Amino acid sequence: MRFPILTGLLLMSTGLAFADPTESTEVGFPEVRTLGTLNGQALACRQFDASSEAKALIIGYAPKTRRYGTLFETATNAAFLAATKDDAPCPTAADLAARLAESAEALKAVFPEQANPEQAKPEQAKPEPSEPQPPGAEPSLSNDETGS
After folding, report:
1. Pairwise pLDDT comparison (18 vs 112), residue with the higher score
2. Could you please report the per-residue DSSP string of 58-109?
3. How far does the signal peptide extend, from start to end residue (predicted)?
4. All structural domains of the chain with their residue ranges
């Protein structure tokens, strides 16, 4: 039982126990942080098309890990709160679209393997229903979809 206590003390003394996962120098973190900031500004300014574009970019180009998702959400929240607290002027839709385009190019440069997500993942063929369905009827779920 002494090992976990000693390990905890060591982590606390080195500061690793309180390390912020969003303050990393990992590849792509500045680009993801910028995209999250743009998303927060878009949400605060009620520019929902720009926010949807930012979310599509993060899904389409950044690695699907918790660290990148947390960073995006943290940057989004911080930018939203700053914009609403300070009553900062909203960027125009054209300005926000241009900044999102720059951010997309930066993400593509950092994560080239993610740049064409449609080509990277082949479409899965949908199985044909085993029984004919009447017009307008919903297809039955397979065992995998129902969880049984």
Report:
1. 112
2. HHHHS---HHHHHHHHHHHHHHHHHHHHTTPPPPPHHHHHHHHHHHHHHHHH
3. 1-19
4. 27-113
Per-residue confidence (pLDDT) for residue 113, from 0 to 100:
73
Contacts of 91 (CB under 8 A, 6+ apart): 41, 45, 99
Nearest to 76, CA basis, from 50, 97, 108: 50
Mean pLDDT of the chain: 76
Q: Are 107 and 28 in contact (CB under 8 A)?
A: yes
| Apex 13 CA angle, 7 and 19, nearest 5 | 90
pLDDT band at residue 66 under the 50/70/90 scheme: very high
The tokens for 79 are 């930018």
